[in-house]
Design brief:
- By secondary structure, the chain is mainly α.
- The chain has one domain (6-81).
- Helix content is 48%, strand content 4%.
- It contains five helices and two strands, in the order ααααββα.
- β1 and β2 (68-69) form a beta hairpin.
- α2 (17-24) crosses α4 (48-59).
- The structure holds iron/sulfur cluster (SF4).
């Protein structure tokens, strides 16, 4: 997991949850997620803004560890990419 420098955190710096999640995921998983996203019919894909909003919630959720949701076992990137997906804890 990427460390947040203490000085930056105390200065209220903003961090991208998507980047944090992507950084935590092994490269082969991000490739897999990307392939899976492209395999989804366009109508089944969530739009980019929705994916970012969902991942932002996942990024600060205690159930998310290393890009995996411990509530359902899914990679959050994959779960957030499908339009009809729902958070198992009803956070999105
Ligand atoms: S419980 Fe919901 S918000 Fe938390 S990691 Fe899982 S899908 Fe994301």
């Amino acid at each position: 997991m990427r460390e947040i420098p203490a000085a930056s955190a105390s200065e209220g710096a903003r961090f991208c949850r998507l980047c944090d999640i992507m950084a935590e995921m092994p490269e082969d998983v991000t490739e897999y997620a990307d392939r899976l996203y492209r395999l989804l019919d366009e109508k089944d894909r969530a739009d980019e803004e929705t994916i970012r909003r969902r991942l932002s919630v996942c990024g600060s959720c205690p159930k998310q560890v290393g890009g995996t949701c411990l509530a359902c076992g899914c990679y959050v990137l994959i779960r957030a990419s499908a339009e009809r997906s729902r958070c198992p804890k009803k956070k999105w």
